[in-house]
Amino acid sequence: MDAQEALARRLERAKKLQEQKEKELLEKRQQEVVGANHALNVAALLASGTQVTPQIAMAAQMAALQARTLAETGVAVPSYYNPSAVNPSKFAEQEKKRKKLWQGKKDGDKSQTAELWENLNFGNKDQNVKFRKLMGIKADDEGEVSKPLNDEGLKTLQKQEEMFRNLDVQYEMARSQTHTQRGMGLGFSSAFSRGMDSI
């Protein structure tokens, strides 16, 4: 029960973290809307003839750039980054790559090698089920995977079965040689040479 409780706690923490991230993202978007409004205010100040410092103008330009990047890419640059030091479009590309890298796979997405591992056949149903359990492959209730393979996958499975048969034959040959031909080979003297030494 302790493991289940720990898992439940981890899931609760993960949900809280996800909710917190969503809130932060919403706040960032609101701040960017405010930044875009700030840029409009600077433009209005310039139009009215009031003096605007270079810092205010630069901040307005950066806010407009961030707002445009957010509208185009959907990714906001965090407020703790220096807006003049970070390229918003490059940051958005990095964030998209990071999300793509760390997102989980969909249920239907399986590579060809995964299909081969699932359909690997050891010649015995019990061994197949045991192998799938050890590998963490989820299969149907009867222990068989219902999804058929393509032609290339079937060829690969046939090659694997042939390789397993060859390995079994080679193992049996080596085993029989080690048990039946003891005392023969390099370093051992034959019975004939022993008889010649005694004469």
TrEMBL record:
Residues 1-34 form a coiled coil. The keyword Lyase does not apply. The keyword Coiled coil applies. Keywords: Coiled coil. Residues 117-187 form the Small acidic protein-like domain. InterPro entries: SMAP_dom (IPR028124). PANTHER family: ARGININE_SERINE-RICH COILED-COIL PROTEIN 2. Belongs to the RSRC2 family. This is Arginine/serine-rich coiled-coil protein 2. It comes from Hippocampus comes.
